[in-house]
Amino acid sequence: MGLLEGKRLLITGVLTPQSLAFHVARMAQAQGAEVVLSTFGRMRSLTERTANRLDRPVEVIELDVNDDEHLAALADGVKSALGGLDGVLHAIAFAPEDALGGKFLSAPRESAELAFRTSAFSYKAVATALLPLLDRTEGRASAGRVADGDPVDAAAPRDVPESAIVGLDFDATVAWPIYDWMGVAKAALESVNRYLARDLGPHGVRANLVSAGPLRTMAAKGIPGFNDLAQLWPAQAPLGWDIEDPQPVANTVCWLLSDLARGVSGEIVRVDGGFHAIGAPSAPPA
Ligand SMILES: NC(=O)c1ccc[n+]([C@@H]2O[C@H](COP(=O)([O-])OP(=O)(O)OC[C@H]3O[C@@H](n4cnc5c(N)ncnc54)[C@H](O)[C@@H]3O)[C@@H](O)[C@H]2O)c1
After folding, report:
1. Does any domain span residue 246?
2. Total domains in the fold of the chain
3. Contact 14, 92 (CB under 8 A)
4. Residue 189 class from Cβ within 10 Å (0-12 exposed, 13-18 middle, 19+ buried)?
5. In this structure, is residue 277 part of a structural domain?
6. Ligand 1 within 6 A of 218 CB?
7. Is 79 noted as a catalytic residue in this protein?
8. From ligand 1's centre to the CA of 1, what distance in Å?
9. Which residues, 6+ apart, have CB-to-CB distance to 199 below 8 Å?
């Protein structure tokens, strides 16, 4: 039996076959999940072409995370595609060009705000839009009841699977070259994750982030100087790091979406080859 057998998942952020979300969707299907993707506007044809490379056909629903109408229609769209929902991957980030690449001091307010809205606030927006489907309060309360009217048995809810939301992060505990306002947006995302864990936990929803090392994707290509930053990684990561291999990140996302991660919330799991634990490379990069 697969890790995600019977799970119904919304995977956002699939654009190209390099997208981290594409690898999560493929792995999730292989592990028994039923998957629906989201895309928006003129990205649709690219997402659909990429979706055709999955092992099983999927529906692709419309979601611009900055569009209130899309958010309002999201739960209905997911329900009609999957009948319910057990987990969500938020794999969405954007910062305008003038907010990246060493332009921290000159970036206009509007660009910083757009980066925050699209990359951090949207994690909360998607979670609340889908809460009607993710909420496990009722199941947990009734599982905890010995008989009608009796008090909730604190031990019993452990048998009722939690639902899960997972986001994708780039370590925001330090300042990086070139990452600028995207780095600030990721710091906000890390904080949003803790508040979601606080407010969704009582609903039986787990919220966690996977903080990934650099991987070659469309979003990464949009960051001027990404290659220079990525080249530092293999020399400092004790396990080494392959910027073309998103599978370790996909594995960890699938674990967090699965019942094996029961009881884990508000966490940031680093999948970076161990880079974060090391102060400086053992030898200068070749
Ligand atoms: N590639 C890396 O090195 C790396 C490292 C750490 C974290 N991440 C994070 O992984 C996530 C996925 O990025 P990726 O690297 O797979 O690149 P990607 O370009 O394949 O995915 C980014 C996605 O964001 C979507 N998006 C942008 N604006 C949106 C909006 N308004 N509404 C809905 N969707 C929107 C795009 O359509 C795209 O699917 C991002 O949060 C990114 O910051 C990436």
Report:
1. yes
2. 1
3. no
4. buried
5. no
6. yes
7. no
8. 30
9. none
Of 3-7, 135-139, 269-273, where does mean pLDDT reach its minimum?
135-139
Provide the whole-model pTM: 0.95
Q: Classify residue 198: in a domain, yes or no.
A: yes
19 lines ligand 1 (CB under 6 A): yes
Q: Residue 159's pLDDT band (boundaries 50, 70, 90)?
A: confident
Q: 114 CB under 6 A from ligand 1? A: no
Respond yes or no: is residue 195 known to be catalytic: no
CATH number at residue 148: 3.40.50.720
Q: What is the pLDDT of residues 249-259, one digit of tens each?
A: 999 999 999 99
How far, in Å, CA of 182 to CA of 208, rounded? 19
Banded pLDDT at 158 (limits 50, 70, 90) = low
Q: How far is the CA of 5 from the centre of ligand 1 (A)?
A: 26
Per the structure, the complete domain to which residue 259 belongs is given by: 8-271
Q: What is the pLDDT of residues 78-109, one digit of tens each?
A: 999 999 999 999 999 999 999 999 999 999 99
Q: For residues 87 and 253, what is the distance between their CA atoms, to the nearest angstrom?
A: 11
Ligand 1 centroid, distance to 138 Cα (angstroms) = 34
Atom index in ligand 1 nearest the CA of residue 243 equals 3
- Regarding the beta carbon of 63 and ligand 1, being less than 6 Å apart is answered yes
Cα(168) to ligand 1 centroid in Å equals: 8
In a domain, 279, yes or no: no
